[in-house]
């Protein structure tokens, strides 16, 4: 399992990807 810092950066990346997908789908 990734450390807290790594998991946080992964969450940020996922949120950014989700936002891009939302903007692309809009």
Describe the structure.
There is one protein chain. The chain is an all-alpha fold and 26 residues long. The chain contains one helix and no strands. It has one helix at 4-25. The longest helix has 22 residues, at 4-25. The termini are far apart. 0% of the residues are buried.
**Mind describing the biggest β-sheet?**
none
Shape: rod-shaped
Radius of gyration: 11 Å
Low-confidence stretches: none
SS-based class: mainly alpha
Helix content: over 70%
Mean pLDDT reading = 88
Order of helices and strands: H
The DSSP helix count reads 1
Question: How many runs of DSSP E, i.e. beta strands?
Answer: 0
Give the percentage of residues in beta strands.
under 5%
What would the keywords be for this entry?
85% helix, 26 residues, rod-shaped, mainly alpha
Give me a quick take on this structure.
The chain is mostly helical.
Q: What is this structure's SSE topology?
A:
Layout: H1 4-25
